[in-house]
Amino acid sequence: MSTGQPVLRVPTGDSYDEETRGDRHQQSCWSNVEGASTRSGCDMNTSTNQSNIITIMKFQVLLLQFILATSSTLMASAEAEGSFRYGDSEDDGNTRIIGGSQTQNGRYSYAVSLQDSLGHFCGGSLIAKDVVLTAAHCQGGSYNVVIGRHDLGSNSGESIPVKKEIPHPKYNDRTTDSDWNIVILSRPTTENVDLIQINSSGNSPSTGQDVTVMGWGDTIAADDAQKLSDVLMAVDVNVISNSDCDDSSGTINGWSDSYKGQITNNMLCAADRGQDCCQGDSGGPLVIRGNSASNDVQVGVVSWGIGCASANFPGVYARVSEAYDWIKQTVCSESSDPPAALCGGGNNNNPPSPSPPSPSPPSPSPPSPTPNSGNWRTILNEDFTNGYGSFKSGGQGARHYGSSKSRQGVIRIQNGKGSRSSFYSKDATLDGSYSKFKVTFSFYALGMENNDSFCLDYSTNGGSSWKGVDCWSGPNDYQNKIWYDDTVVTFSDNRASELSVRFRCQGNSNQDDVLFDKVKVEGQ
Length: 524
Prior knowledge:
This is Peptidase S1 domain-containing protein. This protein is mainly β. The protein has helices spanning about 70-80, 240-245, 325-335, 340-345, and strands at about 45, 90, 95, 100, 110-115, 120-130, 130-135, 145, 160-165, 180-185, 195-200, 210-215, 235-240, 250, 255-260, 265-270, 285-290, 295-305, 315-320, 370, 375-380, 390-395, 400-405, 405-415, 420-425, 430, 435-445, 455-460, 465-475, 485-490, 500-505, 515-524.
């Protein structure tokens, strides 16, 4: 686990169930890095050889990532004792420590796992017997909330279907501002678990204060690997001021980026050298620890960030005190078993009004194109191992998984709801010398019927409008349940000064899925 970004799948391996596939979506996931019907005449070529991938990882939605640095002998010994810690690791000559440890069973019993048919994708916290607080960017589709299950590889606890979701009315999916979501369960839990208290004080936590974040997120701080934790992990981080957080900037794998103008009053930042949260931790709680679970106070919700345990970029959380009145009103009116601590005379102090959503951040500067075979130059190259990376979710029909169908790092698009069933790359600024472009990708169709297809579009104006490149429909262009590696399509545009590409599903149900394992864009 680490402390910054979201969306994952438990445990690693192939556990996609075609018979029980859900209607899950994917939102912004934290990237792990140091420091987006008819076929046209475009070229399409398939091969079973995979290309070498240069991972360009950068922001977005949804966190806890650790690297095991102890030896296998020490690790085995520690596991025999019931716990272990992550230590130091060498990465390209630079020491990177993503610290954390297994939690004691029951210590954070209010921590819950949100799971669809592919497994764990976000965390949350139990604030009433039938109410969960999580991140708004985790919302969408059909899923269950798993309560009282310390080890997700076990069958302990219970799994309860979701009755409805209530995202904060001011949630902005472009800026990830007001990233709170209340989930109402179909019934109260019968598990003997604690409820987490909700912070109502705008003065807490204070700058420099130790806070704890937890989840079942990624445990390997490497760009080319991902391993999700079956056991709940926790790590301590330090609160930093919003102004210092907003000043954060740095270069990650050739991308210059900063938090400037993106940190609002609705956000809370925390970091500690080498400790952070990552994929799969989104929606999980950030707490001030008391002497027991019932005395813990939740101050944040894992929201977003750039990198995992990056020296330049802290983890960003949705500040709970800013939404206290809304949380209290919603829980007390919607819960069938409202908690007395919150609804029977809890703190009614009005927190400051949330700030309006901040403007969308400027597009990052892309890395310098690198020479390739012939005169093709790489514009972007993404394998989704650590989240969306250089891409973004288009909406509730898109989702990232840590592993699926024997592949590590997969984006799934579903149904046919326009941009909501798509994912797209962040704008890449071009130097004006490009007139032809090549997109190479790997895909896997599932449940796609004769009238279903998926399409590739591109934009040269920041996504204001899109131009179609090609569409593929089965069974003429592909068969279901087969990975098609290194599929190639080319298109021309003589006037492009910036470029974004988009993959869009054109199905007609939540059983129509297309999975992507990698995307590479080149120009000449």
